[in-house]
Amino acid sequence: MTTGRLAPSPTGAQHLGNARTYLLAWLSARSQGGTIRLRVEDLDTPRNKPDAVGQLFDDFARLGLDYDGPPVVQSANLDAHVAALESLRRRELVYPCTCTRSDIATAAAAPHAGDEGPPYPGTCAHRCVADAATLGRPYAWRFRVTHSPTFTDGFRGPTAIDLTQAGGDFVVWRSYHAPAYQLAVVVDDAAIGVTEVLRGDDLVPSTPRQLLMYESLNLAAPAFTHVPLVVGTDGRRLAKRHGDTRLQTYWRRGVAPETVLGTLAWSCGWLPAPVPVTARELLPLFTLATVPRTPWVADERWLK
User: Fold this and answer.
1) Under DSSP, is residue 19 helix (H, G, I), strand (E, B) or coil?
2) What are residue 72's phi and psi, to 5 degrees?
């Protein structure tokens, strides 16, 4: 049976773009008779907002995106994260790295576009696990990239990314003694039996890294599907500069959840016009085939 997941982060309010991706993930699993788990990605502690968790629960309830079992809070799974790191350490698949972001940028031959930053130049790759005891300063644990797994994306088809050019060796444990995203998300998804991950295509470069984690930890990898993001009229990812597209703002304005869902369904090609609809009513209409291959440009006029 398919098990999908919704994985919001409490670093801010959920917006229209988040809702579209969550809707696609929910419909994909539910249309197959599968289950949905909710996992709160709260490891980015400095950026977490006090009220964000309560707001995201409210958003999912209003949108009718239900889930199975109790919500899972990522920070509560630290013991499993530590065990995964120890497994990697025992096999010398990671090494201690003392490089800062500025060190990496300085060593790179040319800047690398996007969020990944420049490829890691391998400054600390000569080290072994035992060297950590002699460093005397903060260090992160970095995974040795030996190959770049390819995968068949549920939306994009066959996908290949050369990790040596897209970041290189990557951090799995941060210098302030906390798991990094690539390790934690794999451990946590495996723990709740996730078999399908549908998320925004900004995370395509993360997939081969996570496949390396699944392989190295002897865990079964889910199927991956990446869909285009929602962008503003300037073609850039939704942000404050595009106006207030937070779901909580729509609720305060009196915009009905069915109106939001109808607009999102129309953007995916399931409705001929943005008319009110419930999530359950979209189940027989769901298909990825009609979802545009380009980012959807949000215009607030649709939800006035």
Assistant:
1) helix
2) -105, 130
pLDDT of residue 107: 43
Pick the CATH number of 78-184 from 3.90.800.10, 1.20.120.1760, 1.20.120.1730, 1.10.8.60: 3.90.800.10
Kindly state which CATH superfamily the domain 3-70+228-303 is placed in.
Answer: HUPs (3.40.50.620)
- The pLDDT of residue 106 is 45
Check the CA dihedral 7-12-13-14 and report its sign: negative
**Distance (Å, whole) CA 171 – CA 76:** 21
Q: What is the pLDDT of residue 175?
A: 87
pTM: 0.92
Compare 229 and 176 and report the one with higher pLDDT: 229
Side-chain-side CA neighbours of 270 within 13 Å: the count stands at: 23
Cα–Cα distance, 198 to 200 (Å, whole number): 7
- Which parts of 115-192 fold into alpha helices (H)? 181-191
Q: With b meaning 16 or more CB within 10 Å and e meaning fewer, what string describes 140-162?
A: bbbbbbeebbebebbbbeebebe
Report pLDDT for 45: 73
Pairing of strands 196-200, 223-227: parallel
